[in-house]
Amino acid sequence: MRTALEASACHPRENHHHHASHDFARMAVIWGLLSLCLAVWLNLIWLWPSLGPEVAWLSYGRLAPLQHHLLLYGLGGSAVIAGGYSIAMHSVLQRESRTDAETAIPDIALPPFTLKLMHFTFLGWQAVVALGALAIVAGYSSGQYMAEAPWLVDLLMTLVWLAVAWVFFTVLEQRTLRRLPVACWYLIAGLMLVLMQHVLISLSVPIGLLESIPLFTGSLEALIQRWQAGPLPGGMFAFGLIALLHHMVTSRSRLPLYSHRLATTSFWMLVLLVTWGGAPLLFASALPAWSQTLGMAMGILLLAPGLALSLNGLMTLKEDWHSLRRDPLNCLLAAALVSFALAVLEYSLLSLPTLNALTFSAANSLSPAASLGVVATVAIVMAYHLLPPMRSLALLKTHALLAIIGTLLCVAASWATTLLQGSMWHVLADDGRPLYTLSEVLEVARMPMMISLGGLACWALGLLLMLLNVTCTLADQKSERQAAHERQRLSSGSHKASSEPAMHSASPSTTPPATSSGGHYA
Prior knowledge:
Number of strands: 2
Mean pLDDT: 80
Shape: globular
Strand content: under 5%
Number of helices: 20
Structural class: mainly alpha
Largest sheet: 2 strands, antiparallel
Order of helices and strands: HHHHHHHEEHHHHHHHHHHHHH
Helix content: over 70%
């Protein structure tokens, strides 16, 4: 466990409780690197199937959900929890005025039980990601969309989220400023929504240690799985990542939000609409027509708060637009805001039945603008923001460039694959049969998949450079602390050695009085 000196060296105006956020940030980098390397391998298997080993637990069908699990829960979930702790601490340390802000920051005294819970959340979340990954590879999957982990892992995840909520609200109780920042609104909404949706989707009857039967069946199961499991990453990560975006935009630019009223309106619209935003997953299902129509309307309405949120962040960064050229993290923030607007636009367009039918049978109906452009980008920016200043600015700029180029390549490849394959599937011959065969449709996606492979390789290389930069930075920081302790030890030893001769030289010439001796021993 790190000392307060180490934490203060990382962030001089923060206290030692921020070590949990730093640990989550490090693990987010490791899980993200594993996920992106696995994504590169999956693309290689798709392009050249002979590369894949003939082993069941290394097949494409098991590695693909594993890659999503590591990206969403390992990278995105770790970043959201780390950012939540950091935002709560930052809210406590806020002051009413500039005069108060310049005063010394006291240490935040948390109860011992809360500190143990904070440690439990770190170990528990890493156990959730690791055990869920092992269960998916072994074939013990719940079969739920975006919630593949078995019931035992889901139970542990629920306990971890409850502990995270306890720590978050316990820290917020110590604030002196009654007004909550916008980021705290989204975190509170995200915690409530993820607990509701996660418990609702995970309701099942266990029939073994890793096997269970879903509690709902038939059309009700379709409603729960397709409508609620679809927005689950949105409820868990959209609100959390939006909170991280608001926090980093204001803290890095050192400016208030462009429009507080726009942020308030966007928040309440997202809270009311995000749980009804599963429209792209409802078409061509067994659900009644009225539910699909309602989902379509809600999906279209989601366009307004999503674009408003991105516009608010970009207008805030516009006040310090020149920082985008000198600060790569601000440039990544701008790219994440643009990707968020693009992801919301895609989701709303796919709520239209005509466009949804065009892309339903394609390889990628939704582009990686949400997964890479928002989840991965915001997660790595938050990790850079929490960790100490990096040793190499060149590596940081290279990583930012690779991340932006990789996201653009993957989004362009996804659009090309979706439009080409969707249009080919809907072309019919004179006798009513499909004009193109399955092999021809798959062959069209070969070139876009190679472009996507290049984009994913850029992301994997960038995360590898980030891991190298973080490792070197922490090693330098450790050596600097050791050198500082050594200098302090030598200086205290020399001071003690120089004071002893002076005492011995004064003793023969001066006879201490009797009262002095008695006072000394007393």
